[in-house]
């Protein structure tokens, strides 16, 4: 079976330091790698537009620009009409590629001379400007060219080579703007900055071209692994015929402060639909009736400030959905924080925790599920700072709080405490950007713990289920999809015969 190399994701430095050695091991020169990169891009163009279409290729000074110069020659030979605007080549490979283009009769203009009229009549724009490794903001020239491309290339199909220009290939942040590509053909390996942060706004469809050197390169440990359906199949086997509810755990969900009964309702229903044996809800007196009538299978308890009896019955506690930050909520957080069992900390439970940290009990296992704002409060930082380096924020949360952590957002990241392996979820939908979606996820996590999914796989399994349920729920449209629409999709996904291949 062929290995799925796109599931292994690397930092820019890993790719830079490893590609030359991988090429040498396969007896491939760097010039041949550039030729193969250009051929991969030409194939992507052919799949999109027939021969004869008009291309505008924008080439930067380095090897990314070299890919563009080679592509220009190959595309012209294939029958495309090609225009090139290029910076002065700085690397030896780029110089040779530009010279070969001109030796074969090609012409070009200087990149600084690019104006609006150069985009007229163009079918395809190729971004071969800067590629990976951008660590600082674009200078004035490249900002102008990127702005011009994004504005004038509307209606054109835009292909970025390796990484959209302006996108940080390690963080997924624009610096401060980036090319909006319809497709990105990335070379050798997937980069972290293509799969998390704001990357989805810029990359379009992503295709990996391993250039024939994968066998050597992928022996290096990746910075991230993409979650696949296989982990779900392995962790949720078919149930034994003689099963009973006691085998699948008792989830206690704590939350639902005044006016926020819907959050614990969603979390509880998600836990039920994902297979938890029993689900109890500990909620504020003003929310008890609303939660109780919403789902008869939920055991709903009005609690003032004493959770002790319910904690003795629980296999796992989920605290936070609709909790609020009142004195009532703070007392519940204090009690759960002293419980020696698995706890899923979500929403306002995390916000209270950030204000009054609790020492983790020896026998407890903690799962944190923050969005960037909650992560920022835990780290005494800002959401902007968290988003500027999501990998770093993830690791700090793990280390600081001795917790398994999922950092929500596009390209949700996961790291388990005590492990240097990180996961990323490449599935999902903008339909998940709606109130209650996070409450559903917390219920899914609780259900996975209750069903004895091993601790290292709880968060990867839960995030994958939630993401794919969001995709499936949005098949008739992302806008207007509700968090409650995920519930029946989750039921289908947790049953092995229903999982997609």
UniProtKB/TrEMBL annotation:
InterPro entries: Carbohydrate_kinase_pred_CS, CARKD, Nnr, Ribokinase-like, YjeF_N_dom, YjeF_N_dom_sf
Residues annotated to bind K(+): 64, 127, 165
Keyword Iron: no
GO biological process, one term: metabolite repair
Pfam family, one: YjeF_N
GO MF, one annotated term: ATP binding
Presence of keyword Nucleotide-binding: yes
Chain sites annotated for binding (6S)-NADPHX: 63-67, 131-137, 142, 162, 263, 322, 371, 439
Every YjeF C-terminal domain range: 228-497
EC number annotated for this UniProt entry: 4.2.1.136, 5.1.99.6
Swiss-Prot/TrEMBL catalytic activity: (6R)-NADHX = (6S)-NADHX; (6R)-NADPHX = (6S)-NADPHX; (6S)-NADHX + ADP = AMP + phosphate + NADH + H(+); (6S)-NADPHX + ADP = AMP + phosphate + NADPH + H(+)
Essential cofactor(s): K(+); Mg(2+)
Residue numbers binding AMP: 408-412, 438
YjeF N-terminal domain location: 15-219
Role according to the record: Catalyzes the dehydration of the S-form of NAD(P)HX at the expense of ADP, which is converted to AMP. Together with NAD(P)HX epimerase, which catalyzes the epimerization of the S- and R-forms, the enzyme allows the repair of both epimers of NAD(P)HX, a damaged form of NAD(P)H that is a result of enzymatic or heat-dependent hydration. Catalyzes the epimerization of the S- and R-forms of NAD(P)HX, a damaged form of NAD(P)H that is a result of enzymatic or heat-dependent hydration. This is a prerequisite for the S-specific NAD(P)H-hydrate dehydratase to allow the repair of both epimers of NAD(P)HX.
Oligomer and partners: Homotetramer.
Family the entry assigns: In the N-terminal section; belongs to the NnrE/AIBP family.
Official protein name in the record: Bifunctional NAD(P)H-hydrate repair enzyme
Organism: Pseudidiomarina gelatinasegens
